[in-house]
Write a structure and sequence with these properties.
single chain; 8-stranded antiparallel β-sheet; 3-stranded antiparallel β-sheet; alpha+beta; globular; 168 residues
C-alpha cells in the first residue's frame, strides 16, 4: 500500500509540474514590433552576448532611450514593448525576452537582473523569472501566482548581410 501511495505521489507531482508548464501565459505584453539586427560578427562581439552561460544584454530603442548608447541602431530597428533582454542560457543557447514585466504590463516597468543572481526581478511587483534555464517562466510573486511568463522573441541567423536578428 505504501509503495502504491508513493507511486501515486510521484505521478501526481510530475503531472502537476507538467500542467504548470503548459499553463504559463507569455502573451500578456501588448503587441509591439521587434526587429534588431546585428549586421556583422564585429557588431555581435561588441554588443551581443558572448556565449558564456548566464551572459545577458538589454536593448531599448525609442524616442526617449537608447540602450546601449553606442549600439548601431537603424531606423528599421524595433525593440518591442519594453525593450529586449538577450541571454545565453546554461547550455549556451540564445533566448530573447521583452523587458516589460508581464504582471505590470507597462513599457516602463522593466525586469532587471540583480548582481550575482541567476533570475530577473521586477522592481515594481517583485516577481522573479527564470531567464537562464526555464524560458522566462515565473518563479515567485504575483506573476507566478497568475502564471504570467515573459514574452519571448526569436533569435535567428541572418542572411548574407546580417549576422543575427531578433524578431517576433
Amino acid at each position: 500500500m505504501k509503495s502504491l501511495l508513493k507511486q501515486f505521489a510521484v505521478v501526481a507531482a510530475i503531472t502537476a509540474t507538467t500542467a504548470a508548464c503548459d499553463s504559463i501565459d507569455d502573451s500578456r505584453i501588448p503587441y509591439a514590433e521587434v526587429h534588431l539586427t546585428f549586421h556583422t560578427v564585429g557588431d555581435w562581439n561588441i554588443h551581443g552576448v558572448k556565449g558564456d552561460a548566464a551572459d545577458w544584454q538589454t536593448y531599448i530603442f525609442n524616442d526617449r532611450e537608447r540602450v546601449p548608447f553606442d549600439f548601431p541602431y537603424t531606423a528599421l530597428d524595433r525593440t518591442g514593448f519594453g525593450g529586449i533582454l538577450l541571454v545565453t542560457d546554461v547550455l549556451g543557447d540564445l533566448h530573447a525576452y521583452d523587458l516589460a514585466c508581464p504582471y505590470e504590463a507597462r513599457p516602463t516597468v522593466r525586469i532587471n537582473i540583480p548582481d550575482g543572481e541567476t533570475f530577473a526581478r521586477c522592481p515594481s511587483c517583485g516577481s522573479t523569472f527564470d531567464i537562464f534555464m526555464n524560458h522566462g517562466n515565473p518563479l515567485s510573486g504575483p506573476a507566478a501566482d497568475r502564471g504570467y511568463g515573459l514574452a519571448r522573441y526569436s533569435v535567428v541567423s541572418g542572411g548574407a548581410t546580417e549576422y543575427r536578428v531578433i524578431t517576433r
